[in-house]
Amino acid sequence: MVFYTPFCEPRPIRLCEETRRFAWESLQGKYGDEARTYSAVSLDHIPGFSELSEVEKYNIAIAEIAKNAPVRICKEEKVCGSATLGGAIDHVVPAFYQGRPVFRSVSHLTLNFATVLKRGVNALENDIIERSKDDTLTDAQKATLDSFQKAIAAMRVYHKRYLQAAKTAKPEAYQALLRVPFAPPRTFFEAVQSLWFTFSFVRLCGNWPGLGRIDEMLGGYLEKDLARGTLTIDEAREILAGFFIKGCEWIQSSPVPGSGDAQHYQNIILGGTNENGEDVTNEVSYLVLDVVEELAISDFPITVRVNSKMPRRFLERVAQVMRHGGGIVAVYNEDLVLQALERIGYDKKEALSFANDGCWEVQIPGKTNFHYVPFDSLRILLNDTLRLNTDSPAHFESIESLYIAFRKNLKNTVDKICADAIKEFADFCEHPEKGVCSVISVFEQDCIQRAKGYQNGGTVYRVVSPHIGGAPDVGNSLLAIQKLVFEEKKVSFDDLMRILQNNWEGAEALRLYALNHYTYYGNDDDEADAYTTRVIDDFGDMVEAWQGKSPIIFTGGVSTFGRQIEWAPFRLATPFGKRKGDILSGNDSPTPGTDTEGATAMIRSYCKADLKKMGTGAALDVKLAPGTLKGENGVAALVALIEGFCRLGGYFMQLDVVDAKTLKRAQENPEAYKTLSVRVSGWNARFVTLDREWQNMIIERTEKNSL
Amino acid sequence: MSAALVTKIQRFSTHDGDGVRTVVFLKGCPLDCKWCHNPETKKAENQLYYVNRLCIGCGACRAACGQDAHAFLPDGRHIYRPEQCALCMKCVSVCPAKAMESVAQVMTAEQIMEIVLRDKPFYGENGGLTLSGGEPLIHADLCVELLERAKKLGMTTAIETSGYASREAVRRVAPLTDCFLWDIKDTDPVRHKENTGADNRLILENLKIADSLGAKTVLRCIVLKGVNAEPAHFRAVSGIYHSLQYCAGVELLPYHTYGGSKREQLDGFDDGNKAWIPAEADLALARDILTENGVPVL
Ligand code: SF4
Ligand code: SF4
What we know:
The complex is a heterodimer of chains A (707) and B (298). With 707 residues, chain A is α/β, with parallel strands linked by helices. Chain A folds into three domains: 1-38 and 211-361 and 616-707, Anaerobic Ribonucleotide-triphosphate Reductase Large Chain; 49-206, no CATH class; 368-591, no CATH class. Chain A has 27 helices and 19 strands. Chain A starts with 16 loop residues before the first helix and ends with a helix.
């Protein structure tokens, strides 16, 4: 039972043997495999199901899940509740009609768990009942509120079944469940049970919410218990570990290889300023780090809201945990994120409560309906602007005229995304039966008050964010054309276009020259970085221009989430020497193979764009070799790296520690490396669950970094 | 303005002094250690790297070269003849594959500081500039200028040195240096001479001078199996430690053969010696003796 680490020192041991074994079995896929044996409840026996309205179908689906999903209480568990249906792992509502899912589920949001703790689910139900008394409600609104109430009723059914099961099996959890989540918790244990039960019910219904600011939500309960002497810090750690281990219940022993199995968007936030201007870091923040450090749990990707008031000791703990790799802990530069949020119209107080959306895009928990639309900007350059996919490629007389043409096409893409989003949102607001998801809506502020669903204008905010991918590849392409064609005149514009159409065939010397003789984005070279920076800055302005035209908040973001792998087979050869099918830049990071100056240079390049314009985020991936982080100075260096990132105006950084040798060994012998995690793009994946291409890309990147 | 040949400026270094540092490697070294880890920094003059593996045989180098330093064997393989090269760098600028590369660039203090300053946001209170080589102290004027500038800008300063330099150079840089990373390659004068080309008297004298000027030092001891990995050596190191007032302790550097691939690109052969790689037991022995004698092992 060795929890993998690439670092030279082993992971510390603080938890009891039983908890560790529970974690081990869960990480090996015991419970995920079990869930796979029971995918979904059946709706086939419901008379006239296909004739029912969407809302009625949904209500029945949720009721059937609550009634029939297997109840599971593990011998070692502390808190009870489980998402036991395999269909939920596939992001659908696990209630099937004639063998097929009826509803897709919801992710990329963080629910209002803070309200569940503060007021209890009963209070939410009362709100619904009160709201239903209004006789000016339309029929659709009545149906919506009715559906909300049925969602809570279903939760009650599921809760009763757990109460029964826990009575003898788990007396402590039983006592807590007599109260939570319907009434507010009084102790740390009750609070953790309340949070877990609510979270697991939402997940059971197929949804993948993030958790938000777990330390802020739970810290007060722990503080009181510790002060009263009713709980020790070690006991609290065991309870919290129970929560985290339960959160691994969807891990399977041999899932279908793909983009990684640990991506159910159950992200959490640690630290950060609260409404009173204080940093919220508390004992729970430290305990969370203890747990993931010891158990190598990567299923709850953590992002720390780094700010100047944060205790230095906490940042050092973050660095210590980072050294064990897995990319489990990432950082937001709180100052910059707050500026970005205010810029798009959140008021200051509201902005302070930001969390991620279960992935890494920023939003306000329980208040934002967030939607992002990714697109490939390299395609806009190579296909739409240079027309390399046609018989008559374009010709430009200067790099500026080329850029202006590119920018026009980029704007067309952005404009189409935003215009479509406005139409789509209006359509959903007009048709409350579309996108019904009452289990989500009841935990989103204002849905009850407005008697509208989460997708239908019920939330406080609707945010749509076009996400640009491939911007560094565009920047590098422009730079290479400027140098090869216009400055050094190594090749004419038209010949270069022909060469690119031939995928550099027969022009190997020129290809290598382009690849090797210029400095590209990511090396802190101002001339090179200017191209990528300009693309990102202009993109930000184009999106901002849509602000105020509709109820939607429009803001940009920079990400690819691994889409650079899906895009690769369809992308054409690039002017900077990459061939068709090469895997190019991920997120806002340099194109693989073009950065040679290391982490600080990469951070500086990335920070040259005005990232305040990216309201939902711009992600940078930094990989470090474990050898560079040894000893106390290794921790100090990581802290310095994070602080420098913030000082320079970075937004979001994922730091991962990996060495290529180990990854190769894991590729050959996956059985022995089941707990080895790597940060992919906003999520952590167990390395062995990635398909070969992904694995190779990560190995390639890592090798580059260890030179 | 002083200038020198710089082989590399390494940013985000975490091993050559406190915090995040930028290490400037200056070319040229008066010693000739058999185990040199940075063989490209030895010679005072510039050189070319030739990386055979990268060469695509395009012939651009031969066409560009006025010295006939590039040739092709009958089987098509390209060879580079350093003895004929006049270092005009024409082949470097035309070689598409970067198979030919200049080992170093002449840089002024101004140019070096421009790069060092880029990482200022990451230095915090502890980080800063480290001068290394080669033997940086043979470029005393440049060192003084760089250290003065760095200090003025609030960075910490460190020098990695063999100590084999003029007493004058040591006296000049010591007041500007927060920490010396001082190589103690061997304590046996005869072996020292045999393996590095010089005995260690000057090195130890300079160490005393630096200490007498109040400079903090860390002793860096390379551990070579079959050469110095023996109790007498580490006892002698302990003695040196205790003779100094401002020495923070000893860092043990196990010999490795990474220098080999660089050497291959310089001379066409790799003379890394695997037999020198110390076993864990050799390192444990070194640590034990030092610790027993009250020396902090860093
Ligand atoms: S540097 Fe000049 S002289 Fe030397 S090999 Fe290259 S082209 Fe010839
Ligand atoms: S120019 Fe470079 S790639 Fe071409 S033959 Fe010479 S060394 Fe080889």
